[in-house]
Specification:
The structure holds two protein chains of two kinds. Chain A is α+β, with helices and mostly antiparallel strands. Chain A contains two helices and four strands; from the N terminus they run H-E-E-E-E-H. In chain A, helix 1 runs antiparallel to helix 2. Chain B is mainly alpha-helical. Chain B contains three helices and two strands; from the N terminus they run H-E-H-E-H. In chain B, strands 1-2 form a two-stranded antiparallel sheet. Classes of the chains: A alpha+beta, B mainly alpha. At the A-B interface, helix 1 and helix 2 of A face strand 1 and helix 3 of B.
């Protein structure tokens, strides 16, 4: 359900945080795919696997709002997954079934260390999102205690 | 207008959030069901549940005591884009919805309890509560 927020508040902030969680989880999927295919030499398009890059983009939470703050509040979305076109490393393996005429095999342009770092950033960003949701919840509960 | 009417109106809000919680919980249960589209509950006359108390006190669109015809509508959630297996449930969106739904429920519950304690205070001649 698209809740029309009139002003920026706890619930709009939660929606924004949720979009961040979704995006980071999508990024985690992309990273996992890259790591899993670090040695894949055959793809449907032909040639070795190309590492994928997640592209995030900002999207206004309530585009039609008149509230000046809420107008600037933007959710994030994983808008595109783009293949990285840098060439992969060529290894001399004449016995490999995918070796070219000179005996070289092109391996994917996946750098395991880069992917691990991406994975850690994604997981930390996800945790940050969860923490912000937790603190929003405690803010709302604190507001409920005002009347007591 | 009877004394307890405000609480009755708030009850509609509580009902709404309870039923919505049931639907959201079933969305989570279908996290891995291929082809499943998540559902949500909408109400025609308010976007935030707290409007229930405001709207119903001067509007004719919701009878305070007829809770069978509450005007809740189950809709399929257009927000979740289907994944590879046609399943549209987004774990993060659903859990956040459940959390915010619960917060709204708590808020209305607190309003109702404040309302009732005000009545109790009046019934006790302003001495207790």
């Amino acid at each position: 359900m698209k809740t029309a927020n009139a002003t920026a508040g706890v619930f709009s902030a939660m929606e924004v945080a949720a979009s961040g969680l979704t995006a980071e989880r999508g990024r985690m999927n992309v990273v996992a795919g890259n790591l899993a295919n670090a040695r894949t030499t055959r793809t449907a398009e032909g040639g070795p696997y190309k590492r994928l890059d997640p592209v995030f983009s900002a999207k206004p939470l309530s585009p039609g709002t008149f509230d000046p703050i809420l107008k600037k509040v933007e959710t994030v979305q994983l808008s595109e997954v783009r293949p990285d076109q840098t060439p992969g490393t060529k290894v001399y393996e004449p016995g490999h079934p995918d070796a070219n005429a000179d005996g070289y095999v092109e391996y994917p342009n996946v750098n395991v260390v880069t992917e691990m770092v991406n994975m850690m950033t994604a997981s930390r960003a996800y945790e940050a999102g969860v923490t912000s949701i937790e603190s929003l919840k405690s803010m709302a509960r604190a507001a409920l205690r005002i009347g007591k | 207008m009877a004394l307890i009417d405000t609480v009755e109106h708030l009850k509609t809000g509580l009902d709404y959030h309870l039923q919505r919680h049931n639907l959201l919980a079933s969305n989570l249960a279908h996290l891995d069901t291929p082809g499943y589209t998540p559902v949500d509950l909408t109400r025609d006359k308010f976007e935030g549940a707290l409007h229930v108390a405001l709207d119903t006190t001067h509007g004719g669109h919701l009878a305070g005591t007829t809770h069978t015809e509450q005007g809740f509508r189950v809709v399929s959630d257009p927000k979740g884009g289907p994944g590879g297996d046609g399943n549209g449930v987004d774990l993060d969106q659903e859990t956040v919805k459940i959390a915010s739904n619960q917060l709204r429920y708590d808020m209305i519950a607190q309003l109702a309890s404040a309302e009732l304690s005000g009545l109790a205070w009046a019934a006790n001649d302003g001495k207790a509560g």
